[in-house]
Design a protein that fits this description.
globular, 248 residues, Glycerol uptake facilitator protein, mainly alpha
Length: 248
Protein backbone atom coordinates (compact mmCIF):
# COMPACT_ATOMS: atom_id res chain seq x y z
CA UNK A 1 0.00 0.00 0.00
CA UNK A 2 1.45 3.38 -1.03
CA UNK A 3 1.67 6.31 1.36
CA UNK A 4 -1.03 8.11 -0.61
CA UNK A 5 -3.44 5.17 -0.52
CA UNK A 6 -2.79 4.71 3.20
CA UNK A 7 -3.70 8.34 3.83
CA UNK A 8 -6.87 7.92 1.77
CA UNK A 9 -7.80 4.86 3.80
CA UNK A 10 -7.22 6.62 7.13
CA UNK A 11 -9.03 9.84 6.21
CA UNK A 12 -11.68 8.26 4.01
CA UNK A 13 -11.00 10.85 1.30
CA UNK A 14 -11.63 8.28 -1.43
CA UNK A 15 -15.13 7.72 -0.06
CA UNK A 16 -15.89 11.41 -0.28
CA UNK A 17 -14.36 12.03 -3.70
CA UNK A 18 -17.72 12.41 -5.42
CA UNK A 19 -19.10 14.54 -2.58
CA UNK A 20 -16.09 16.87 -2.69
CA UNK A 21 -16.25 17.17 -6.48
CA UNK A 22 -19.84 18.42 -6.42
CA UNK A 23 -19.63 21.73 -4.57
CA UNK A 24 -23.30 22.56 -4.96
CA UNK A 25 -24.30 19.10 -3.79
CA UNK A 26 -21.93 19.31 -0.81
CA UNK A 27 -23.36 22.72 0.12
CA UNK A 28 -26.88 21.29 -0.08
CA UNK A 29 -25.99 18.46 2.31
CA UNK A 30 -24.50 20.91 4.83
CA UNK A 31 -27.53 23.19 4.64
CA UNK A 32 -29.68 20.10 5.15
CA UNK A 33 -27.78 19.27 8.34
CA UNK A 34 -28.11 22.85 9.61
CA UNK A 35 -31.86 22.86 8.97
CA UNK A 36 -32.45 19.36 10.29
CA UNK A 37 -30.52 19.97 13.50
CA UNK A 38 -32.21 23.33 13.97
CA UNK A 39 -35.61 21.64 13.72
CA UNK A 40 -34.59 18.86 16.11
CA UNK A 41 -33.33 21.24 18.79
CA UNK A 42 -36.13 23.77 18.26
CA UNK A 43 -38.80 21.13 18.83
CA UNK A 44 -37.14 18.86 21.40
CA UNK A 45 -35.46 21.49 23.59
CA UNK A 46 -38.21 23.95 22.71
CA UNK A 47 -40.84 21.60 24.10
CA UNK A 48 -39.02 21.64 27.45
CA UNK A 49 -38.81 25.43 27.42
CA UNK A 50 -42.46 25.88 26.42
CA UNK A 51 -43.52 23.43 29.12
CA UNK A 52 -41.69 25.51 31.73
CA UNK A 53 -43.08 28.78 30.36
CA UNK A 54 -46.65 27.44 30.31
CA UNK A 55 -46.60 25.76 33.72
CA UNK A 56 -46.69 22.24 32.33
CA UNK A 57 -48.92 22.55 29.24
CA UNK A 58 -46.65 20.29 27.17
CA UNK A 59 -46.01 17.63 29.85
CA UNK A 60 -43.34 14.91 29.71
CA UNK A 61 -45.30 12.77 27.27
CA UNK A 62 -45.57 15.76 24.95
CA UNK A 63 -41.83 16.27 25.07
CA UNK A 64 -41.18 12.68 24.08
CA UNK A 65 -43.73 12.76 21.27
CA UNK A 66 -42.42 16.09 19.95
CA UNK A 67 -38.83 14.84 19.83
CA UNK A 68 -39.76 11.55 18.20
CA UNK A 69 -42.02 13.09 15.57
CA UNK A 70 -39.55 15.79 14.52
CA UNK A 71 -36.92 13.09 13.96
CA UNK A 72 -39.37 11.15 11.78
CA UNK A 73 -40.23 14.31 9.83
CA UNK A 74 -36.62 15.37 9.26
CA UNK A 75 -35.50 11.92 8.10
CA UNK A 76 -38.36 11.80 5.60
CA UNK A 77 -37.77 15.40 4.51
CA UNK A 78 -33.97 15.51 4.40
CA UNK A 79 -32.72 11.95 4.51
CA UNK A 80 -32.33 11.80 0.72
CA UNK A 81 -30.27 15.01 0.76
CA UNK A 82 -27.71 14.47 3.52
CA UNK A 83 -28.76 11.29 5.28
CA UNK A 84 -30.32 13.45 8.03
CA UNK A 85 -27.68 12.64 10.62
CA UNK A 86 -28.66 15.75 12.67
CA UNK A 87 -26.44 14.44 15.46
CA UNK A 88 -22.62 14.56 15.72
CA UNK A 89 -22.37 11.05 17.14
CA UNK A 90 -24.44 9.62 14.29
CA UNK A 91 -21.95 11.26 11.93
CA UNK A 92 -19.17 9.75 14.04
CA UNK A 93 -20.79 6.34 13.66
CA UNK A 94 -20.96 6.69 9.87
CA UNK A 95 -17.30 7.71 9.82
CA UNK A 96 -16.24 4.77 12.00
CA UNK A 97 -18.27 2.44 9.78
CA UNK A 98 -16.50 3.78 6.70
CA UNK A 99 -19.61 5.30 5.17
CA UNK A 100 -18.21 8.84 4.94
CA UNK A 101 -14.75 10.42 5.06
CA UNK A 102 -13.21 12.58 7.77
CA UNK A 103 -13.61 15.90 5.95
CA UNK A 104 -17.31 15.30 5.31
CA UNK A 105 -17.77 14.18 8.90
CA UNK A 106 -16.14 17.33 10.27
CA UNK A 107 -18.22 19.51 7.94
CA UNK A 108 -21.41 17.74 9.04
CA UNK A 109 -20.60 18.22 12.72
CA UNK A 110 -19.88 21.91 12.16
CA UNK A 111 -23.21 22.29 10.33
CA UNK A 112 -25.06 20.47 13.12
CA UNK A 113 -23.56 22.68 15.81
CA UNK A 114 -24.48 25.80 13.83
CA UNK A 115 -28.06 24.54 13.58
CA UNK A 116 -28.07 23.86 17.32
CA UNK A 117 -26.84 27.34 18.23
CA UNK A 118 -29.39 29.00 15.94
CA UNK A 119 -32.18 26.92 17.47
CA UNK A 120 -31.08 27.84 21.00
CA UNK A 121 -31.18 31.49 19.99
CA UNK A 122 -34.66 31.07 18.50
CA UNK A 123 -35.98 29.39 21.65
CA UNK A 124 -34.73 32.22 23.87
CA UNK A 125 -36.08 34.82 21.46
CA UNK A 126 -39.56 33.30 21.75
CA UNK A 127 -39.90 32.14 25.39
CA UNK A 128 -36.90 33.70 27.09
CA UNK A 129 -34.85 31.56 29.45
CA UNK A 130 -37.81 29.49 30.69
CA UNK A 131 -36.64 26.02 31.57
CA UNK A 132 -33.08 27.14 30.84
CA UNK A 133 -34.08 27.18 27.15
CA UNK A 134 -34.56 23.41 27.31
CA UNK A 135 -30.95 22.74 28.34
CA UNK A 136 -29.98 19.27 29.47
CA UNK A 137 -28.64 18.64 32.98
CA UNK A 138 -28.25 15.70 35.38
CA UNK A 139 -31.31 15.25 37.55
CA UNK A 140 -32.38 11.98 39.24
CA UNK A 141 -29.27 10.14 40.39
CA UNK A 142 -26.86 12.96 39.57
CA UNK A 143 -23.94 12.99 37.15
CA UNK A 144 -23.12 9.27 37.27
CA UNK A 145 -26.67 8.22 36.49
CA UNK A 146 -27.02 10.76 33.67
CA UNK A 147 -23.70 9.73 32.12
CA UNK A 148 -24.55 6.03 32.19
CA UNK A 149 -27.99 6.76 30.76
CA UNK A 150 -26.43 8.74 27.90
CA UNK A 151 -24.05 5.88 27.08
CA UNK A 152 -26.76 3.21 27.06
CA UNK A 153 -29.45 5.27 25.32
CA UNK A 154 -27.04 6.42 22.60
CA UNK A 155 -25.77 2.87 22.16
CA UNK A 156 -29.22 1.62 21.26
CA UNK A 157 -29.99 4.70 19.17
CA UNK A 158 -26.93 4.17 16.99
CA UNK A 159 -27.45 0.41 16.93
CA UNK A 160 -30.94 1.07 15.58
CA UNK A 161 -29.59 3.49 12.97
CA UNK A 162 -26.87 1.07 11.89
CA UNK A 163 -29.49 -1.62 11.46
CA UNK A 164 -32.07 0.34 9.47
CA UNK A 165 -29.83 2.75 7.55
CA UNK A 166 -26.65 0.83 6.68
CA UNK A 167 -27.72 -2.80 6.31
CA UNK A 168 -29.21 -3.79 2.96
CA UNK A 169 -31.17 -6.59 4.65
CA UNK A 170 -33.24 -4.08 6.65
CA UNK A 171 -36.43 -2.36 5.51
CA UNK A 172 -34.87 1.04 4.78
CA UNK A 173 -38.22 2.69 4.08
CA UNK A 174 -39.07 2.35 7.76
CA UNK A 175 -35.83 3.95 9.01
CA UNK A 176 -37.52 7.23 9.92
CA UNK A 177 -40.24 5.51 11.90
CA UNK A 178 -37.80 3.21 13.69
CA UNK A 179 -35.38 5.98 14.66
CA UNK A 180 -38.06 8.51 15.57
CA UNK A 181 -39.93 5.94 17.66
CA UNK A 182 -36.76 5.06 19.52
CA UNK A 183 -35.97 8.72 20.28
CA UNK A 184 -39.47 9.32 21.62
CA UNK A 185 -39.38 6.14 23.69
CA UNK A 186 -35.97 6.96 25.17
CA UNK A 187 -37.12 10.42 26.25
CA UNK A 188 -40.40 9.14 27.67
CA UNK A 189 -38.71 6.38 29.67
CA UNK A 190 -35.44 8.01 30.73
CA UNK A 191 -35.84 11.77 30.25
CA UNK A 192 -36.22 12.45 34.00
CA UNK A 193 -32.69 11.12 34.63
CA UNK A 194 -30.88 13.71 32.52
CA UNK A 195 -33.16 14.70 29.63
CA UNK A 196 -32.05 11.76 27.40
CA UNK A 197 -30.14 13.97 24.97
CA UNK A 198 -28.17 11.28 23.05
CA UNK A 199 -26.94 14.17 20.93
CA UNK A 200 -24.27 16.79 21.71
CA UNK A 201 -25.98 19.20 19.29
CA UNK A 202 -29.27 18.80 21.18
CA UNK A 203 -27.46 19.98 24.31
CA UNK A 204 -25.10 22.68 23.04
CA UNK A 205 -27.37 25.45 21.76
CA UNK A 206 -29.74 25.41 24.76
CA UNK A 207 -26.76 25.31 27.14
CA UNK A 208 -25.29 28.43 25.55
CA UNK A 209 -28.46 30.49 25.67
CA UNK A 210 -29.96 28.95 28.79
CA UNK A 211 -26.75 29.29 30.76
CA UNK A 212 -27.00 25.72 32.05
CA UNK A 213 -23.62 23.95 31.98
CA UNK A 214 -24.09 21.43 34.80
CA UNK A 215 -21.81 18.51 33.86
CA UNK A 216 -22.22 19.44 30.20
CA UNK A 217 -19.33 17.12 29.33
CA UNK A 218 -21.51 14.05 29.87
CA UNK A 219 -23.66 15.07 26.90
CA UNK A 220 -20.59 14.79 24.71
CA UNK A 221 -18.60 11.94 26.23
CA UNK A 222 -21.61 9.69 26.97
CA UNK A 223 -22.99 9.77 23.41
CA UNK A 224 -19.50 9.39 21.90
CA UNK A 225 -18.83 6.29 24.00
CA UNK A 226 -22.27 4.83 23.29
CA UNK A 227 -21.99 5.50 19.56
CA UNK A 228 -18.53 3.95 19.28
CA UNK A 229 -19.62 0.82 21.15
CA UNK A 230 -22.70 0.48 18.93
CA UNK A 231 -20.62 0.59 15.74
CA UNK A 232 -18.27 -2.07 17.10
CA UNK A 233 -21.12 -4.33 18.18
CA UNK A 234 -23.06 -3.95 14.94
CA UNK A 235 -19.95 -4.66 12.89
CA UNK A 236 -19.60 -7.94 14.80
CA UNK A 237 -23.26 -8.78 14.22
CA UNK A 238 -22.96 -7.96 10.50
CA UNK A 239 -19.77 -10.01 10.14
CA UNK A 240 -21.26 -13.01 11.94
CA UNK A 241 -24.39 -12.92 9.77
CA UNK A 242 -22.31 -12.55 6.60
CA UNK A 243 -20.28 -15.62 7.52
CA UNK A 244 -23.45 -17.56 8.26
CA UNK A 245 -24.93 -16.57 4.88
CA UNK A 246 -21.80 -17.52 2.98
CA UNK A 247 -21.61 -20.94 4.62
CA UNK A 248 -25.25 -21.83 3.99
Amino acid sequence: MTENSLAQTVTGSAIDREWLADRHGAAATLLSEVLGTFALVFFSAGAVAVDAASDGAVAPIGMGIAAGLIVVAMIFALGHVSGAHINPVVTLAFRLAGRIGSLRALAYVAAQLIGSVLAGLAIVAIVGDAGDAGATAPRIGGVDAAFLAEVILTFFLVLTIMGVATDERAQGAFAAIAVGSYVGLAILAWGPIGNASMNPARSLGPAIFGGEWSAHWIYWLGPIVGSTLAVLVYSLLRERRSRADSSS
